[in-house]
Amino acid sequence: MTVGAAVWAGIGAAWLVWLVASRLVRPLPGIDAVVKAFLGSWLGRVLALAAWAEAGWHLFGQRP
Amino acid sequence: MQSVVSRLTSMAGGRRRPTTTPIARLARAVGVVALAALVAWEGSLGRYSAASHASVLAVIVSVVLLALVAGRSRQRASSRTWAGGIVRMLREAAVWSVLIAATVSWDLASFVAQSHSLPTLSRILGAVTDHDWGRALVFAAWLVLGLYLTLGERRGPVARAAGEGPPRERPSTGGP
Lengths: 64, 176
Prior knowledge:
Largest interface: A-B, 40 and 59 residues
Order of helices and strands of chain A: HHH
Number of strands of chain A: 0
Number of strands of chain B: 0
Number of helices of chain B: 8
Order of helices and strands of chain B: HHHHHHHH
Radius of gyration of chain A: 15 Å
Strand content of chain A: under 5%
Distance between the termini of chain B: 30 Å
Oligomer: heterodimer
Mean pLDDT of chain A: 90
Shape of chain B: flat
């Protein structure tokens, strides 16, 4: 396993752990709360849509 | 997939609205079939093809236009109010903020390094999207996320008319 792959595995594991923890422990905000917070205004929604559009263009139209 | 579309439609209105007319049901079914066909077709396209570029661009433009049309006068807070509360929001979700920052930072560092031992996130995902089924699956997820970002968390016209719905700050009007 390369260094990069190991770091990605660690980041992925951290995401997984916190996803589960925020599901099980009620007061902790989940990722859905973060996304919803961005959709609360036009500015946040535009930022989220810009990130979504860039990710799609990069992933489906460019060399990854 | 129809239930996903149904949920997205209900989110656009802030609550679940029953489909009332056969025409509305038919329109929804046609929409679902069209999206499924788009996903299947997109899965068959190569990354560098003109059709791939055109279709992804068309989806992005359509979603942005839909956001403007569906969201007119239906945003919960003004951008100024939201920007004022962004620091508090990031502090409340500190762990998520750190995780997102770590993901973006490491992806950027890997991109700058351009080394085989430091793959970017898109190269990892590229191993999935190299396959037709993988590309179709990831494209479907991207499409659903885009529709959610467009239609989700809107102030519903029903709630607005009745003076109900979640507490809201000064509503924004028009576009961004």
